[in-house]
Amino acid sequence: MLEPLLCDLSVPGRVGFRFPEPDVPLAEIPENLVRQNLPLPELYEVDVVRHFTRLSQLNHSIDTGFYPLGSCTMKYNPKLNEETARLPGFAHLHPMQPIETVQGSLALMYELQEWLKEIGGFAGVTLQPAAGAQGELTGILLIRAYFEARGETQRVKILVPDSAHGTNPATSAMSGMHVIELKSDDRGNVDLQALKAECDETLAGLMLTNPNTLGLFDENVEEVIRMVHEAGGLVYGDGANMNALLGIVRPGDLGFDVLHYNLHKTFSTPHGGGGPGSGPVGVAAHLVDFLPAPVVTILEAGDEGMELPPLYGLESPPKSIGRVKSFHGHFGMMVRAYTYMRVYGKEGLRKVSEYAVLNANYLLARLRAHYHVPYDRVCMHEFVAEGRWPDAPDIHALDISKRLMDYGFHPPTNYFPLIVHESLMIEPTETESKQVLDEFAEAMIKIASEAHSEPELLKNAPQITPVGRLDEVKAAKELVLCCAVGAYNR
Ligand SMILES: *Cc1c(COP(=O)(O)O)cnc(C)c1O
Question: Distance between CA atoms of 229 and 219, rounded to whole angstroms?
């Protein structure tokens, strides 16, 4: 099944749209601005609509199927979020409008800041960063500014555990810090001995993902934070895994000094395909003055009964590191996350995490007899299995993932975290039913058996997609939009 390309469908003379006869005088367009030999396909409107609708349905999406892409929290995105984000009062604003005319939006941002403070246990929040990775950059810049203000410029070392997401060392290095990799111990926790060896007067901080990318809650997290603090460093929390903690543990209470949230993961704003996302950053009291400018504040309090609402405004914190994003960040994502939080409420958000953890442990329990799980203990919202068997030496995690597509599932995350061989990182999220989890488990179990009995089924997968295995780098970097069949490998 190969989709025809738009240019293959072209028939000379077909027209999709006719402009009305002009009722104004025709203007001369300078010759050199008009290209004569533009090879646009000639099609009826309906051909174009069908072509693109068909193409759009070839994508796997959370609206069409299960998407257990570990670390990415591909939960269902409630459609109500889209409705609120499209309300004209939000969607048609201009960021340069006078603040008196955008009070409703500022109120929404203010409340979102307050809720994120409450959820994470922090004293201040910036909503500006465009995604988790930019939140990390912002957080490390805050740590750097904090030490500069204290005259401790020798603190240039950021420790990053070997299980970390690649963005952690990248953002630390971009901030001008020296990145030191920290080993994990054999239970998947930060290795305390390795940490101790790095605790000196050059330590700026530790970037810790908790639960970590193995889906495990660090059993020594309080000890880890205490050690960093005693050495004079600060602790950055990668909050991408907040979906395991809502209403249960507040990172600020554990001692984290700064943490980013991924609204597009935990709070259900759509992602994949490159964004936009939103990566607010929460900070403890000693970092509030350094937050990016502006933050939303209350300029004049309202009265108790809200007869007179407060007057919201924008403020620059006294030692601000400056802007990290144009205007106010990705406001549409804030509206979606705000809607999500309002719908669930305090009790509901806790249930989100409880079910996310339950679902992951259920899948783990169903799969551990069939796949080796190297750090096998109660997991949080995700777990990491190995996609290899000693008696099926040719099979790799990638083959398992590609075969899953034949069963209608999106593959789990492959080859991350790096400390597990042939890793398959599985995150079901709370929005899936037991029935879907069972169907996925059955498919995984079947694939484990195929890997031994009919390995070529895995090697030749996916079979049901129009294109098979592409060169993943070239497919993105040398995009072929219109050409002969040579672009496909079958
Ligand atoms: C997704 C993720 C990030 C980066 O977040 P983006 O919003 O994709 O930039 C960082 N760390 C972990 C553990 C993640 O899962």
Answer: 18
**How far does residue 299's CA lie from ligand 1's centre (Å)?**
34
- Under 8 Å CB-to-CB from 333, ≥6 apart: which residues? 263, 264, 269, 276, 277, 278
Question: What would the pLDDT profile of 106-128 be if each residue is shown by its tens digit?
Answer: 999 999 999 999 999 999 999 99
**Cβ partners under 8 Å of residue 278, min gap 6:** 127, 129, 130, 131, 262, 263, 264, 269, 329, 330, 333, 334, 337
- In 3D space, the residue among 252, 150, 168 whose CA is nearest the CA of residue 209 turns out to be 168
Could you give all domains of the chain from N- to C-terminal order, each with its CATH number? 79-342 (3.40.640.10)
Indicate the pLDDT class of residue 3, thresholds 50, 70 and 90: low
Report pTM. Answer: 0.91
Q: Which of 362, 365, 295, 361 is nearest to 126 (CA)?
A: 295
Taking all residues of the chain, what is their mean pLDDT, rounded to a whole number? Answer: 93
Residue 49 DSSP SS3: helix
Residue closest via CA to ligand 1's atom 14 equals 240
> How many residues are present in the chain?
490
SS3 302: coil
Binding pocket residue ranges, ligand 1, CB within 6 Å = 71, 131-133, 165, 167, 209, 213, 238, 240, 262, 277, 279
> Coil, strand or helix: which one is 222?
helix
What sign has the CA pseudo-torsion 15, 17, 21, 24? negative
